[in-house]
Amino acid sequence: SKVTSLGQLEMTWRSRVHFHPLLVRVLHKSRLRYYGKPEKKLDMPYQAYFEVADGSGMMSMVLWNSLCPEWYNSIKVGTVLLLEQYAIKTSYPFKTQPTPGDSQMKRFATIEISLNVRDPPTKISIIPEEMVKPEWGLPEVKYRFITRSELDALPNNHSCDVIGLVTFVGRVERTRKREHSEDFWLYRWAHAIDGTSDQPFILELFATSQPDVFEHIHPMTYLVCTQMRVVRDVTENPSSTVYLTTSNESQIFITGWHKGQPYTKDTKVKNFIQWTKTQSEADQMKKTVIGGYYPFPRPPNNFLKY
After folding, report:
1. Could you tell me if 152 and 120 lie in one domain?
2. Does residue 126 sit in the same domain as residue 158?
3. Are strands 201-206 and 242-246 parallel, antiparallel or unpaired?
4. For residues 25 and 79, what is the distance between their CA atoms, to the nearest angstrom?
5. 98 lies in the same domain as 194
6. Does one domain contain both 182 and 267?
7. N vs C: which end of the chain shows fewer Cβ within 10 Å?
8. What are the pLDDT digits (tens) for 170-197?
9. Superkingdom of the source (predicted)?
10. DSSP character at residue 239
11. 136, 160, 183 — which closes off a domain?
């Protein structure tokens, strides 16, 4: 009945204690963060960020503690939520910012929606897509897909989405989060082709909060990676070391997970599917590789240069 908008919240949040319900669509989803420390006795020290939007703009929403195991997997990019009894806080200034697919969208960066088990106990409802009404004015999820032929022209740190046919996937490797730290990031290298270039996408895929997908990337699967960042070594030969790495908001999907995802309507995704229909599976299979050690960027050919 009485629904407020993100724009109204930003203008009135200081003068209110209770807020009207919100109807929003999830546009971005961060990986799950564990912030437990031995000296702090928290049962479930988890946190996850989402970027949510309505007709007035986009704002961050934070899921805290025991709400994470309960809701994290159910709230996907594209999900429509009805939020009741939430709190509003000033934004945390150091969090990562995803690049919105719609560059015209207004971003409310001063405050964020905080969802907790208590103070106040938030009520979250997922609205099925077939019940979402056009008059609610919720924005569609938009993407920034690029083809392999477009990659060479993009600057360092540019944000993009890609789809490709996996031709190589490396073993899972690990790197320290910080020097002398006991924590490690897990990652693996993958190559994917899309038919627009002789070169593959070189993808550095860090383990996101999707272990069931990360562990099952294999050759000949259709791989979609969103919110990837371009990395180019400008000091060396710039054309030879362009690759893409995951960001905090990256989502990864493989064959079997694409059904119902918002990107299936994207033109570049449809073009890629058309291209795969022209390919011989047996020919592509011969070119695929799995596992092994993959040093990248490649070291120089001789020791003197090294």
Report:
1. no
2. no
3. parallel
4. 6
5. no
6. yes
7. N
8. 999 998 888 887 888 999 999 999 999 9
9. Eukaryota
10. T
11. 136
Q: Which domain holds residue 21?
A: 6-136
Looking at residue 194, what DSSP letter applies?
Answer: -
Distance CA 212, CA 210 (A): 5
Q: What angle do CA 191, 294, 246 make, to 5 degrees?
A: 50
Domain count, the chain: 2
Establish if 301 belongs to a structural domain. Answer: no
Q: Burial letters for 105-119: b for 16+ Cβ neighbours within 10 Å, e otherwise?
A: eeebeebbbbbbeee
| DSSP run (H or E) holding 143 | none
Q: Are residues 16 and 132 in the same domain?
A: yes
pLDDT digits 0-9 by tens, 49-59: 999 999 999 99
* Whole-structure pTM value: 0.91
Residues 97 and 227 in one domain: no
Q: What is the CATH number of the domain that holds 177?
A: 2.40.50.140
Residues 6+ apart with CB under 8 A from 305: none
Query: Nearest 5°: phi and psi at 174?
Result: -140, 155
Closest C-alpha among 234, 58, 253, 46 to residue 139: 58
213 located within any domain = yes
Neighbours of 74 (CB within 10 A): 10
- Tens place of pLDDT per residue across the chain (306 aa): 689 999 999 999 998 888 999 999 999 999 999 988 888 888 899 999 999 999 999 999 999 999 999 999 999 999 999 999 999 999 998 888 899 888 899 999 999 999 999 888 999 999 999 999 999 999 999 999 999 999 999 999 999 999 999 999 999 999 888 888 788 899 999 999 999 999 999 999 999 899 999 999 999 999 999 999 999 876 655 446 799 999 999 999 999 999 999 999 999 999 999 999 999 999 999 999 998 888 877 766 777 766
- Within a domain: residue 298? no
| CB 32 within 8 Å of CB 49 | no
Where is the domain boundary, 73, 103, 136? 136
